[in-house]
Amino acid sequence: xxxxxxxxxxxxxxxxxxxxxxxxxxxxxxxxxxxxxxxxxxxxxxxxxxxxxxxxxxxxxxxxxxxxxxxxxxxxxxxxxxxxxxxxxxxxxxxxxxxxxxxxxxxxxxxxxxxxxxxxxxxxxxxxxxxxxxxxxxxxxxxxxxxxxxxxxxxxxxxxxxxxxxxxxxxxxxxxxxxxxxxxxxxxxxxxxxxxxxxxxxxxxxxxxxxxxxxxxxxxxxxxxxxxxxxxxxxxxxxxxxxxxxxxxxxxxxxxxxxxxxxxxxxxxxxxxxxxxxxxxxxxxxxxxxxxxxx
Length: 295
Fold this sequence. Notes:
alpha+beta; four-stranded antiparallel sheet; 28% strand
């Protein structure tokens, strides 16, 4: 039996995000293009003989009980398979929190993968994804990773060809956004046709491996709520475009913004401007990375 595992929980961005309607159960039907990026949290699993799950993190404000998604993920599988040993979960957060990058969902996905491997439960990736949606709508995608079309509440996934590589600058302003608030204030049924992003067009552009065409299809209807409430989101997008991004967009419900760059020097300059320059007042966390494409 494996007694110790170290795992990487990669973040994601939404290259496009459309909300189709609010369902009777309170969830929303969405269509999104999801893409994994090369920054990640570190998740460490350690077997312990005494029963129970313990969680420790490097951020004092995160819960270390059943309110943390990593605890819920471990508890879900260990109860189902009557695992009697205990588990210690060490979570080192590097992805921005409450930022539209699915950090918590990715951490939970890593724990599902790790518990399955550690205790030799024999679940396939699809079986892990089926269980993951009980924890959160983004968890199945975070198990799949790569480039994917996401539908339903986010759990219906269609893998797409890997995106062409480029540089990605990611910037999170010093605010946190409530996903619940954003969805409650988006009146999906009242959106005009032109406010919906061209998801099918983006899928075609990805299949054609045309990065500029992909960028031209960027769109996120949740910006109608988040960017209106927080003008800093548009300011960061403007800086990225000024420094040569082929396009920039808010990820998820925000407030994180990302820009795609085909010129490595332009990406470096944009990163340094947002990290150290006059625009550093706009962003609390800034990253320079690329796409993480699953082989």
